[in-house]
Design goal:
nine-stranded mixed beta sheet; alpha/beta; 3 domains; 14 helices; 40% helix; Rossmann fold; globular; 364 residues; three-stranded antiparallel beta sheet; Arc Repressor Mutant, subunit A
Length: 364
């Protein structure tokens, strides 16, 4: 177990809050330089190969964030802490730092994600409550996103047995506003997690990131009701890419809110009709899901030991269309480590976008 000093913990937060540093580049930098403090010191030289000097997040900004986090009654959870959720840690894109309120031990228990439509039908709301309540009684912790509709009802029905809420805002922001009381109950009776810094209002781009955490915490994701192209389907896809079970409740083909679930089932998600079906699928889950919905693995290589190794000329192979990192390694003829270093420098320069499934593209 790594014992962090206050100085190193602060440096880690500052490193992650620096422009163009995401979970993958954060881990690469930490692995390459050993400490966040050393990585911060090396950033200007590393990004300097692209021309412009690099400026990490300011100490004043991070100090203000830490103060807000403490005022909210929350604390930080780092990726190498023994309290970090074990299933979430398996993801290459797992958040290196989370803020939390509540009991982190809940995330070490068997978890199931329940997600669905915000404008859910009365029948779907009833099903969400029934499934969440029965699964909580069966010993599962219910994970969801505290959104309107299915999410909120799943949390309410599972509070007594254990529930985890993952929000797209900072830990001190309640969204939607009408769920402020529910969010407080989740924080006091269950576990509330946030990836965004305290004080951050929820933006559209934060929700897919939130969804990957929901999917990563659970051995399986159940979609109760969802329209095509909804956020719930993003969560299901991310669960499949993580090698987790994907389940859906079928609905009437005449109801647009059921089309997403029906499509999931057609594409390989497991059809479930009761909480017992879900429990049977997830009890003793060994990492070999029955669902075949868009499963895809992503692998990132380690950075080279030599800090002076020249980066591969990867930018010429990239377009705005996402491509797998493995394909870049094959086409460039470079080592995996050299390709990863080149991608890291492009990301620091704001020229690279990382996508689910280990794919990358040039920023538009």
């Amino acid at each position: 177990m790594t014992v962090l000093t206050q100085e190193e913990a602060f440096a880690r937060i500052r490193l992650l809050r620096s422009p163009n540093i995401g979970p993958v580049s954060y881990r690469q930098l930490l692995g390459r330089f050993g400490t966040a403090d050393a990585a911060l010191g090396a950033l200007p030289d590393l990004a300097g190969r692209g021309g412009a000097p690099y400026r990490p997040a300011s100490e004043a900004r991070v100090s203000a964030e830490v103060t807000r986090t403490r005022q909210a009654g929350a604390r930080y959870l780092f990726h190498d802490s023994p309290e970090y959720p074990p299933l979430l840690a398996e993801l290459d894109s797992a958040p290196p730092i989370l803020t939390l309120r509540g009991d982190p031990a809940l995330a070490a228990r068997p978890c199931v994600a329940i997600v669905g439509a915000r404008n859910a039908s009365a029948a779907a709301v009833k099903l969400a409550r029934q499934f969440a309540g029965e699964l909580a009684e069966a010993g599962f912790v219910v994970v969801s996103g505290l959104a309107r509709g299915i999410d909120g009802d799943a949390h309410e029905a599972s509070l007594a047995g254990g529930t985890i809420g993952v929000i797209a805002s900072g830990i001190d922001i309640a969204y939607p506003p009408e769920h402020a009381a529910l969010q407080e109950r989740v924080a006091s009776e269950g576990l509330l997690l946030a990836e965004q810094p305290a004080g951050t209002e929820p933006l559209a781009r934060h929700f897919p990131s939130r969804n990957r955490i929901i999917a990563g915490l659970a051995t399986g994701t159940l979609v109760v009701e969802a329209a095509p192209k909804s956020g719930s389907l993003i969560t299901a896809r991310l669960a499949a890419e993580a090698g987790r079970e994907v389940m859906a409740i079928p609905g009437s083909p005449l109801d647009a809110r059921a089309q997403g679930c029906n499509q999931l089932i057609r594409d390989g998600a497991v059809l479930v009709q009761s909480a017992a079906d879900v429990a049977e699928l997830l009890t003793g889950f060994t990492g070999a899901p029955r669902s075949t919905f868009r499963e895809q693995a992503a692998h990132y290589a380690a950075l080279p030991d030599d800090p002076d190794e020249p980066p591969a000329d990867i930018a010429a192979l990239l377009t705005i269309a996402p491509v797998a990192v493995d394909e870049l390694i094959r086409q460039s003829g470079e080592s995996a480590a050299a390709v990863q270093l080149a991608l890291l420098e492009l990301e620091l320069a704001g020229r690279l976008v990382r996508h689910a499934g280990g794919r990358v593209s040039l920023a538009a």
